[in-house]
Amino acid sequence: MAQIILSINAGSSSVKVSVYKANGKSEDPTQLAEAQVEGLTAPPAKLKYERGDEKVKGKELDGIKTQEDAFRFILDQLTKDEGLPELNHIEDIKFTCHRVVHGGDYPRSQIIDEDTYHHIETLSDLAPLHNAPALTIVHAVTSLLPNATNIAYFDSSFHSTIPPHIHTYPIDQVIAKRNQLRKYGFHGISYTFIVHAVSAYLSKPTSTLNIIALHLGSGASACVIKGGKSLDTSMGLTPLAGLPGATRSGSIDPSLIFHFTHDAGMPSRSSSKHMHITTAEEILNKNSGWKSLTGTTDFGLISASDKPECQLAFFILVDRILNYVGSYYLKLGGEVDALVFAGGIGERGARLRSEVVGRARCLGFELDEGRNEEPGDGVVTDVGREGARHRTLICRTDEQLEMARGVTEESERFEGGEIAG
Ligand SMILES: Nc1ncnc2c1ncn2[C@@H]1O[C@H](COP(=O)(O)OP(=O)(O)O)[C@@H](O)[C@H]1O
Ligand SMILES: CC(=O)OP(=O)(O)O
Ligand SMILES: [Mg+2]
């Protein structure tokens, strides 16, 4: 009997679910189908579906507003697809992997039992756009797919190698330790994929790989990776810090919010029994970023528009990215194998890459504009000018595949024992 893995990636604006057939421990699982509901922050949500040659793109969906709605819709689509007989018996779904953004101190993936579930719930306040929605999907899976073992993969785990002088905030350390206030960092499942893909592409062992990686999606972050490990990243205690995003401000002067509204410290409308966020957090997480500047969360539209507000948003992102490229280059002492673009904007935003790399020329990064415009669809593509001092790459990151690999490699750690081919 084939063992089926469902890999579920709940982002802030999308839910992506990939279905895999396991091929034993040492081989990558085979993808059978991938469904994606995107645009949850820019309704109507849209469906993208791929199974073999069958492709649906941009189908508008009514009434799909939350990550849970999106997941339920996708599961229905998958189990009803006659071209996907592997999912006709849902009891064959052995593992469901869930991307959980904030994992606190968890250094690696965990089976989601009652304790883990509640621990993830307590971290919801620190990732208000992510943890609670991911748990609604875990909850749905337990009732819809009772035979599946749920495993959480944490975005924060990859950054457990960040040293204390980088992850410590200069505040009272008694309070910092008691309340676990430090930099955690996120997008780590994506950065793990990027490390493996780029080291294979460059034929360099991961332990010697030095890169500056940019994961630019609805949430955007930068990461400096030294010897294959995270040395620093732009997100912090929460995914709000660092680069701006679709609805997030990114880093601002912390005092700003008290000048913005007198209600900053009051509980927000989004607070619930399990998640407590203030008006300040609500404003900075949900009503800022591209949405507040331009009225759209779609960076593709922003990049293509010559409206002044779109130009402003576009160059704000360019500027903030350069802050990290410059400082991370220093942190690597100039020993950089590549600058890597990933995530929806990083992979599809030719104009953004061109503006960023053009300004990083003094560091030795240069683009081949032709390849930048039409990079093809390999997992890793070199878009740098031949002969440039450092390479510039695009990596089509795949968080679902990274989680599914994790399951097949470590299946004996999880309930259900060794994975079969
Ligand atoms: N051609 C494009 N140029 C720039 N950005 C794009 C383009 N196409 C899509 N995007 C942007 O990619 C972002 C979504 O990235 P993705 O990584 O899929 O998001 P998520 O964080 O939800 O996983 C959206 O802001 C979308 O507008
Ligand atoms: C951590 C984070 O911001 O994730 P996403 O970009 O998927 O919202
Ligand atoms: Mg994402």
TrEMBL record:
Cofactors: Mg(2+)
GO-annotated molecular function: acetate kinase activity; ATP binding; magnesium ion binding
Annotated keywords: ATP-binding, Kinase, Magnesium, Metal-binding, Nucleotide-binding, Transferase
Keyword set includes Cell division: no
Active site (catalytic residues): 155
Annotated pathway: Metabolic intermediate biosynthesis; acetyl-CoA biosynthesis; acetyl-CoA from acetate: step 1/2
A Pfam family per the record: Acetate_kinase
Catalytic activity, EC: 2.7.2.1
GO-annotated biological processes: acetate metabolic process; acetyl-CoA biosynthetic process
Ligand binding (Mg(2+)): 9, 399
Transition state stabilizer, annotated site positions: 187, 248
This protein's record includes keyword ATP-binding: yes
PANTHER family per the UniProt record, alphabetical: ACETATE KINASE, ACETATE KINASE-RELATED
Membership in a protein family: Belongs to the acetokinase family.
Name of the protein this chain belongs to: Probable acetate kinase
Organism (species): Lepidopterella palustris CBS 459.81
